[in-house]
Amino acid sequence: MLLKCEAMTIKKYLDMPHNIFFIYGSEIVLKNNSKDIIYKSLSSRGFVEKIILNKEGFDQIDQTIFENAGGSLFGSKIIIEINHDQGKIPDQIIKIFEIENINKIDNIAIVINSNNEKLNSQSKWVKAMDELALIIECKKLKSFEEKIWLKHQLSFVSEIDRSDLIQNISEMNSGNLVAQQNEINILKLTYEEGKKTRSSSTESAEFMPFELEDEIISRNTKKALKIIHSIKSAEDHYAPLLVWIVGKIINSATNARQSKNPINSLIKSGVWSNKTSEYMNFIKNHKLQNLIELQKNIFELDLANKGLSEKNFWYELDNIVVKLTTS
User: Fold this and answer.
1) 214 neighbors 187 (Cβ within 8 angstroms)
2) Which of 218, 242, 233 is nearest to 325 (CA)?
3) 146-163 residue pLDDT tens
4) What does the alpha-carbon distance between residue 212 and residue 272 come to, in Å, rounded to a whole number?
5) 109 and 77 in contact (C-beta within 8 Å)?
6) Last residue of a domain, one of 137, 163, 184
7) Which among 12, 23, 28, 257 is least buried, having the fewest CB atoms inside 10 angstroms?
8) Residues 210 and 91 occupy one common structural domain
């Protein structure tokens, strides 16, 4: 029987020293959450470099693994992220599990993010993967599971407010984890204990996170930078939320750029349907290679935010936004 963990219980499996991870399922929010948790765990184990391989780089998977098996030039541990966003699992990914002692290469971690919603536990390659990797299933949640998930996500909220917020968000967005995640991200930027609406004491109400998203995809450099600088001066501890917003834009655009059905890809990435046309115009102005490079920049930005890099977080964030809005 296939040994897999569900997204909501992934943390207890990370105590075991897995170096290969396979994320699949229909719930994009849980997939993103799982990936964030995995990266945080890997970071604590010294993995500070990242190589991203999308569809166009699948032929380089073997070469990338073997070239880095002995460690990087600076002795760093490396994450190889493989994004499979359409069709059946290609042979290049299946062959990973045929590499001798692949799970014993200590300086490499492999994270495979697949669009597959189901796995055939009888498949030869799935059985092989089961022996080597932590398999994370991210399926749609039942109603009571959504509330448990919400409770964990709202841990930053006081107990006094938490129950009402869980009930309100759940009722307004039942069955829609993307919308619930968006509500949570807004709360992270605006929440004050005892006040469940935006604070009137700062400019946060004016500079909402999805306004930042809108200004970036409309390529309005001046307004995007103004939003970032206002948040920095008023609420600079919301830096992780800014990483999430900009990372979402870049990852959604990268996946859509490679997809045969880019609009469907955007929606699966959590982009609201009323924003897909704006995203399509945004994507036309960015070559795939540039987007892949920006994915690396976001990973480095996240390290800077966590104090794992000497780079200046706000300076690097400005540079990324300028690249996104002026190319």
Assistant:
1) no
2) 218
3) 999 999 999 999 988 899
4) 15
5) yes
6) 137
7) 12
8) no
Q: Are 122 and 128 in contact (CB under 8 A)?
A: no
Q: Tell me which DSSP letter residue 137 carries.
A: E
Q: Are residues 214 and 304 in the same domain?
A: yes
Query: Could you tell me the residue range of the domain that residue 76 belongs to?
Result: 5-137
pLDDT band at 238 (very low <50, low <70, confident <90, very high): confident
Distance of CA 101 to the CA centre of its chain: 28
Per-residue pLDDT tens over the stretch 280-291: 999 999 999 999
pLDDT at 95 over 80: yes
State both tokens at 85: 């966003």
pTM for this prediction: 0.74
Could you tell me if 50 and 81 are in contact, meaning their C-beta atoms sit under 8 angstroms apart? yes
* Structural domain total, the chain: 2
Could you tell me the CATH number of the domain that includes residue 275? 1.20.272.10
Q: What is the pLDDT at residue 71?
A: 60
**Span 57-82, average pLDDT:** 84
Q: E strands of the chain, at which residues?
A: 5-6, 20-24, 47-53, 77-84, 108-114, 134-137
74 belongs to a structural domain: yes
Query: Taking the mean position of all CA atoms in its chain, how far away is CA 123?
Result: 28
pLDDT: which is higher, 234 or 151: 151
Task: Decide: 38 and 14 in contact? Cβ < 8 Å.
Answer: yes
Tell me if 257 sits within 8 A of 238, measured CB to CB: no
Last residue of a domain, one of 120, 137, 154: 137
CATH code: domain of residue 84: 3.40.50.300
Please indicate, yes or no, if residue 182 is contained in any of the structural domains: no
Is residue 94, in this structure, part of any structural domain at all?
yes
Q: Is residue 246 one of the residues assigned to a domain? A: yes
What distance in Å separates the CA atoms of residue 89 and residue 110, rounded to the nearest whole number? 15
CB neighbourhood size of 25 (10 A)? 22
* Mean pLDDT, all residues of the chain: 86
Percent of the chain with pLDDT over 70: 89
